[in-house]
Amino acid sequence: MTETETRNHHDDKQQNGGAVAEPSVEDVFDDTYKMKEGPKPPRMLVWRNIILMTLLHLGALYGLILLPSASVSTVAWTAVCYLISALGVTAGAHRLWSHRSYKASFPLRVFLALGNSMAFQNDIYEWARDHRVHHKYSETDADPHNATRGFFFAHVGWLMVRKHPDVVEKGRKLELSDLKADKVVMFQRRHYKLSVVILCFIVPMFVPWYFWGESLAMAYFVPGLLRYAVMLNATWLVNSAAHLYGNRPYDKSINPRENPFVAFSAIGEGFHNYHHTFPFDYATSEFGCKLNITTAFIDLMCFMGLATDPKSVSKEVIIARIKRTGEGSNKSG
Ligand code: ST9
Ligand code: ZN
Ligand code: ZN
Q1: How many CB atoms lie within 10 A of CB 66?
Q2: Pocket of ligand 1 (CB under 6 A)
Q3: What are the domain boundaries of the chain?
Q4: I need a surface site. Which of 35, 199, 318, 322 has the fewest CB within 10 A?
Q5: Which atom of ligand 1 is nearest to the CA of 170?
């Protein structure tokens, strides 16, 4: 389905969890918001998160040291866990639940929610709520990972401090009824902690130990902690590197950029200038499956009848936009 640059497709009714919800997805930049004048609120460190993040990265470093002595099966299993958890974020929390850029059947939503718990990046509801605020108030106080506060803050620092009050204030005004009406989303939210313990830690560790006799230490540190930490950093690079480094062919007035390295590691999510310009496009890119496993996955799901209605932008609209607001760094087509 081809879309114009307007978001009128979001006025359609969508089926979610058996309920019909009004899908007014609030992911368009709001230029009427003005940041409050005067001194910023004090930065309040959350020591629990700082300690846990440090321990995770030390554990992942130990996993990296163990990696050369892992069996081929364990390395392959680590890649499988990376892919499933990454899809739970990219095809799930991001393209489906945050942006409603395609429709997914119940079995696909269950798979994506399981992958999302394996990714342990906050539950889908919280992730999508924060992500909609990120698009609507990008690079302002109301953006949870405001990249104008520097690389470290946008990357991981924002998870180590209390949120700016404007994030919560603006977030509370967002329309989230589509998420509340999705039974899979709300089930995952209710059972989030247990699902993370099982899917992010126990399953990745148990499979190599039980099926091919890998040591528990190797199974914990490689497909468990190392895979989790690398996947987190690949995700965070979209907020840090892809908001700071790269070209802006579609809109030179915004910070998000096209970053092929991030696109590769985040299985297709590094075409960030395009994505912030056209947030409803299911491919998050002009170039289909290029460096974009997630788009290939959604195409496959559509082919199998498990997904429908992928939304995209016509070539003419893209070219017109490049001419109107791009920086002239990249030719389309
Ligand atoms: C993680 C998330 O890593 C990563 C997300 C990345 C997003 C990337 C996007 C890029 C594009 C997509 C690319 C995908 C690429 C994937 C590649 C894969 C290879 N609106 O939160 P609290 C309310 S998580 C409305 O405690 P504090 C909230 O409901 C990693 N309301 O704020 C609550 O209300 P009530 C693991 C909001 O105290 C109250 O405010 N997790 C909003 O400031 C307090 O909420 C972690 O490391 C909102 N937006 O604490 C830490 N926000 O009381 C998890 C909040 O009524 N987080 N509220 O219930 C935390 O510990 C805390 O949130 C905090 C802030 C310390 C960061
Ligand atoms: Zn997005
Ligand atoms: Zn962004």
Answers
A1: 17
A2: 46, 49, 86, 89-90, 94, 120-122, 127, 129-131, 133, 159, 162-163, 167-168, 171-172, 231-232, 234-235, 238-239, 266-267, 269
A3: 42-248
A4: 35
A5: 20
